[in-house]
Design goal:
The complex is a heterodimer of chains A (642) and B (320). Chain A has 642 residues and is α+β, with helices and mostly antiparallel strands. In chain A, a hairpin with a 4-residue loop joins strand 18 and strand 19. Chain B has a single domain, classed as 4-Layer Sandwich (Phosphatase 2c, domain 1). The chains are: A alpha+beta (642), B alpha+beta (320). The interface between A and B is medium-sized, with 20 and 21 residues.
């Protein structure tokens, strides 16, 4: 039995040849008599003087030894295997593994991997001499403490582990897969860095190669049980390790692949949602759904560390932090452009696409849940209400679809394509249509309550407040109408009002293709002020107490002071801004037709980061729980960390 | 520094320090320096039913704007170069309830009667512009929103007033602070160092305008402290005023009217002489708006009355 450096473990490793845990065929202790162990003072190969036993395994032991070649005291770890126990097949396998470990260690060079010094055989005994690692392994640490380890500490270790995995996975000429990531194989040094130990089953990765099940039950992903060993198995096992560290629940005590039944934050409320999302992404059942590589996972963890204000010097990732890129937590690809915005509820994301479908995805993983096919493209942003998703389609219909099942509850016909997004108030759906009407539909029955004539196509979304609604038309009219249909006032902008009105403190704000952001008194319909941009806008203003944020075809994202009606700042993108800005915490998120999603400091307009997609972004970000969901005309929906 | 600023400075170069030390026993106990008969109760004089409890709601139905004013040349000036204007209207009709108010204070400068001419011309021009562009159509049979926004109307009014001063009284200059209240929205167009305060029912004051004065600018830039600003020798120097040659941009703000309380529009002869806290307490303690205005002007005179004093006090309707 292999022992790992420091302490005995690996007892649950399955026998690769007989599908039984090795522990059942080989007793953990006793197969090697204590008198077979090297005695203290024994000198191996005229060089390594045994000091004491560090750990014992099924087929050997690990010793602490002194290297006699040095006059100063230099300790090394000596790992021993005695090829005399068990049947031949097992013995051969274990010897092979031992040699493999030696070969792997001899070819790698990383601060978190012990250095190999020597490898030799005396008769039935083989020895591996390597760097002696002080410290304790994480499983021992976990068992020895009350409660749980600090979350931020786990994040830092996670980053370091990603770093070493990335090193192994991108090793040249051949990448290595560790295949046995778990707390017991991670030693925390006195300097608080991780060391990865036990490379007995690490192996060169060859794409498509199948083998036998190797690894540790509970930490290993499904494909590892089928004998596959891609770098994705290490990502899963790291996810399992982090889950173990964060929750304190040992996955070996649970049925395999049941992490989702033990939601991290339920067990440890101190874990931020982003971290739970990272771990969940790593633990995806299907390998392609996990992080693309260890580096992607590392950067997701770095983002969490940044938020936690961790000293990065410890992480050794300073260089990456300086010019790091935002990496999606997940992406989902449709069959055509996404022009509408996503909406979220109950952990799900709903988004329409020009491929005629509305998709429901798992918000944390991006996993497909269902899709609903219309007969026309969907640019309308779905609205969620009582477990039902409402949206309009260019097939002229408004649909109500059950959020859990994706089955249609009702559909409602208008006489024109629908580009407006529904608003739900008082159990009614308010939505505009190119037929020139705002349709007010009973959300439960799908029957029309009333329709209000706008005289021209209505692509803006109505805004409903108290007993009136506001909407713009493609003829440039903005209406303030009562639910009964009576128009209180109507104001005409010079060009279309596709931007959706927003109301605050008795003032309605909206943009127009005539290049103005208007502020109109709700009671009278009189204009209080207008802010002139260099080109038109279809972007919907985002209002705060003092400011409006809006994009324009003049390529800028503006922040306008509502009192002085002057711009506080403007940020220039490389193309038209049809997307509507969204304020989240202290940042503005907005897409541009230049393909980027921008994150700007809300106060100054300074760029914090941008994320580049492969085509224009005209949709508006949906932000929830520190995740930005943004659709692009490159057909993809991206989930990005804020 | 432009000439007009120097003139303005000279004109108003009596220091408050001087005013404060002239605490002679000759301060009259009766009201002084009332140059215009504007303190008589207006027809819509407020019927504050529990005036000893000013925090209580205004006891008028329907909720409406009420306003009064007071003015004095002060105790050290022969002329009064300040001008002011009040217009309060209310339309109550078929489902309509529309209060409208227009209030202006202008503080002229320039000497040789230029000052009083300039401030009155500015006010007349502004009032004419606003009534024509806004007021007449607002109360027409089929009210059509004007093509221009409220902000643009006010901005144009300021430019017209500026040009009118240049035409009629070259060399004259004035501050011009205009408040328009339309229902629950208000707009303020402001040039110079007159001020608009929002005053809540407990008498707390908050300035809604920014003085276009050199010391205020120095204070904003952190060059001098607010304490230093009070006694700064150039504290009367404006960097923006009407009637002067240089191009300028009026400061215009739009905002919902405060939910209750008052607006105080006044010249620096009031705010520069009587501490804000005292003004607020005076408003709180007075039984009527006219009494409040008069008491504030009196307080400025009692502190020496170094400059012309103008005050307009508007009681805002309580939001429903």
């Amino acid at each position: 039995m292999l022992a790992i450096i420091g302490l005995s473990e690996s007892v649950h490793r399955r026998n690769p040849l007989v599908d039984q845990p090795i522990t059942r065929s080989l007793p953990l202790n006793g197969s090697i008599d204590t008198d077979q162990q090297l005695q203290s003072g024994t000198i191996l190969g005229e060089r390594y003087q045994i000091e004491r036993v560090l750990g014992v395994g099924g087929m050997g032991a690990v010793y602490l030894a002194r290297d006699k070649r040095f006059t100063v005291t230099k300790y090394v770890a000596v790992k021993e295997i005695i090829a005399q126990v068990g049947d031949d097949a097992i013995r051969r396998t274990l010897v092979t593994n031992f040699e493999r470990e030696a070969n792997v260690l001899a070819t790698v060079n990383h601060v978190a991997i012990p250095k190999i010094h020597d490898f030799f055989t005396f008769g039935k005994r083989s020895y591996l001499v390597m760097q002696y690692i002080e410290g304790r392994n994480l499983e021992t640490i976990l068992e020895s403490i009350e409660g749980l380890l600090p979350v931020q500490q786990i994040v830092i270790w996670g980053i370091e582990l990603c770093d070493v995995l990335h090193y192994l996975h991108s090793h040249k000429p051949e990448p290595f897969v560790f295949r046995d990531m778990k707390p017991a194989n991670i030693i925390i040094t006195p300097e608080n860095h991780v060391m990865l130990v036990d490379f007995g089953i690490a192996k060169e990765f060859e794409a498509g190669q199948k083998g036998t099940m190797i690894g540790t039950e509970g930490y290993s992903p499904p494909e590892q049980y089928r004998g596959e060993a891609s770098p994705q198995v290490d990502i899963y096992a790291l996810g399992a390790t982090l889950h173990h560290l964060l929750t304190g629940i040992n996955p070996r005590d649970e049925a395999p692949f049941t992490f989702s039944e033990r939601p991290i934050r339920q067990l440890n409320p101190e874990v931020p949602i982003e971290l739970e999302n990272v771990v969940n992404s790593a633990l995806q059942y299907n390998a392609p759904d996990r992080f693309k590589d260890a580096n992607a996972m590392k950067e997701a963890l770095i983002l969490i560390a940044r938020k936690g204000g961790i000293a990065y010097a410890n992480v050794g990732a300073a260089a990456i932090l300086q010019d790091y890129e935002i990496k999606p937590l997940w992406t989902f690809e449709c069959e055509d452009e996404i022009r509408g915005s996503a909406t979220h509820d109950d952990g799900m994301i709903f988004v329409g696409a020009l491929d005629n479908n509305v998709y429901a995805l798992n918000g944390s993983t991006g996993e497909f849940v269902w899709k609903f096919a219309c007969e026309g493209g969907v640019v309308s942003t779905p609205a969620y209400h009582s477990r039902t998703v409402h949206f309009g389609s260019e097939d002229q219909r408004v649909y109500a679809v059950s959020a859990p099942t994706g089955r249609v509850v009702w559909s409602y016909h208008t006489d024109g394509p629908i580009r407006s997004s529904p608003i739900i108030r008082d159990r009614h759906v308010f939505i505009g249509s190119d037929d020139g009407f705002v349709h007010v539909i009973n959300a439960a029955s799908g029957r029309r309550a009333v329709k209000i004539n706008g005289g021209a196509a209505i692509r803006s979304s109505p805004y409903v407040e108290d007993d009136v609604l506001f909407f713009g038309t493609e003829d440039g009219d903005i209406f303030c109408a009562e639910f009964g249909g009576k128009v209180r006032w109507r104001v005409n902008a010079k060009r279309a009002v596709t931007s959706s009105p927003r109301v605050q403190d008795g003032v309605v704000y909206f943009g127009s293709v005539d290049g103005m952001l208007y502020a109109i008194d709700v009671k009278t319909g009189w204009s209080l002020w207008r802010f002139r941009m260099d080109r038109g806008t279809i972007s919907t203003p985002w209002l705060t107490e003092h400011y409006a944020y809006i994009g324009s075809a003049d390529r800028h994202i503006y922040c306008i002071n509502l009192k002085t009606s002057k711009d506080v700042w403007k940020f220039k993108t490389d193309h038209q801004v049809s997307s509507s800005p969204v304020l989240y915490k202290d940042a503005i998120y907005c897409g541009s037709a230049d393909g980027n999603l921008y994150c700007l400091d809300a106060k100054t307009g300074f760029l914090r980061w941008k994320f580049t997609t492969r085509a224009a972004i005209v949709s508006t970000p949906d932000i929830f729980d520190d995740i930005v969901y943004i659709g692009s005309m490159d057909h993809r929906l991206y989930a990005l960390p804020t | 520094m432009a000439d007009y600023l120097k003139k303005y400075l000279k004109k108003r170069d009596k220091t408050r320090a001087k005013a404060n030390i002239s605490d002679s026993p000759t301060i009259p106990t009766e009201r002084v320096g009332i140059s215009q008969d504007v303190t008589k109760p207006l027809s819509l004089q407020p019927t504050i039913t529990r005036s000893d409890q000013p925090e209580s709601r205004l006891g008028v139905e329907p909720p409406q704007l009420l306003a009064s004013c007071a003015q004095s040349a002060g105790r050290q000036r022969e002329h009064n170069e300040d001008s002011l204007f009040l217009l309060t209207t209310m339309l109550v009709g078929n489902g309509t309830r529309f209060p409208f108010g227009l209030y202006i204070v202008a503080d002229g400068m320039g000497g040789h009667q230029h000052g009083e001419v300039a401030s009155e011309i500015a006010i007349r021009t502004m009032v004419g512009h606003v009534t024509e562009q806004l007021f007449s159509s607002l109360f027409s049979v089929d009210p059509q929103p004007p093509d221009l926004s409220l902000r643009e109307i006010l901005q144009n009014g300021v430019y017209e007033a500026h040009n009118a001063i240049l035409d009629h009284t070259p060399g004259g200059g004035t501050t011009l602070t205009t408040v328009v209240i339309m229902n629950n929205q208000m707009a303020i167009a402001h040039v110079g160092d007159s001020r608009v305060y929002s005053v809540n029912l407990s008498g707390a004051m908050r300035s809604l305008t920014r003085d276009h004065s050199l010391v205020k600018r120095l204070e904003e830039l952190g060059q001098i402290t607010p304490e230093e600003a009070v006694f700064h020798p150039q504290r009367n120097v404006l960097y923006r005023a009407l009637g002067q040659g240089e191009p300028f941009e009026p400061e215009i703000i739009t905002a919902p009217t405060p939910e209750s309380g008052y607006l105080l529009i006044c010249s620096d002869g009031l705010w520069g002489v009587v501490p804000e806290k005292e003004l607020g307490m005076t408003i709180k303690k007075s039984k009527t708006l006219s009494e409040a205005c008069q008491n504030m002007v009196d307080a400025a005179n009692q502190a020496g009355g170094p400059d012309n004093i103008s005050a307009i006090l508007v009681r805002l309707p309580d939001h429903e």
